[in-house]
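User: I'm new to structure prediction. If I give you an amino acid sequence, what do you actually give back? Let's try with this one:
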Amino acid sequence: MLLQSANKIARKFASNLDCKSSFQRSNLFLKYEERFFKTLFDMNLFIWQTIFILSSAALLPVAPFLYLQGQYTRKKVGRLPDAEGETSGKFGDKTDSVKLLAIGESTVAGVGARTHETALTGQFAKHLSLKIGKTVEWFAVGKSGIRAGETINELVPKIPDVKFDYIMLGLGGNDVLKLSSPRKWRRDMTTLIGILKEKSPGAKIFITNAPAVRLSPALPQPIKFLLGHLSALHDRNTKDFTREMENVFYFHQPTQVIEDFFADGLHPSEKGYDVWSETMLNFAIDNYGIKKL
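Assistant: Good question. You get back a string of structure tokens that encode the predicted 3D arrangement of the chain. For your 293 residues, that looks like this:
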């Protein structure tokens, strides 16, 4: 059905092209291009949602085993505390300054690091400051275990009442671990991004990668395979729905990490946060054609 709709749009565009002026043709092209890609995006989401539903149905007979394995893994890994200290600060001593908001799950809460300065927010602020040559005032609004949809009601109200120049969204891990569907993930994320854009118009928004579950040394098989498959769906989904968003930069899921990247097999260490932050910024510059951060 969706493929037929895309073909119909293309045929209608071709039939109308000859009878228009150059200006009209330009506007017509933009109009049909937008409709065509929306249809393709809807088709991709339909495919990923179908894969999710069929995979879930196939796993029902072994669901009790997966649940017990998950509980055993959680107990074995344990629970690291959030980072201590202030949830706001600054990096740099330049006269010009910018504001950075980090909002999201345990990585923004700083799990795996001693303080927020050495966790994701502080490390990202450091590398951003070094690249733009300005002081970065940073604010971390995080909560362990939270999903994208819950962030809208629980964390957005806690955002400081200021306009931010940069926003980093650190979400996805719990949407994978708690089995959010591709449709729910897209709906929640696009809603959240819209809210953040409205609060800070013109801000550059960076989205951390879908969790690299397949690289985690803490997760056993077959949970690692199954969650890795869902994380890969979320990765492709996020690439898809952010493709046409202005000033939104998604860091694609990595295929490898440094040896001591993890603190507990799931969350980054302080060194992991450092390398991750620098890699995300370099990726945005190299892959999104950002001439000026």
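You can read the tokens as a compact description of the fold. Here is one thing that stands out. The chain has two domains: 2-63, 79-287.
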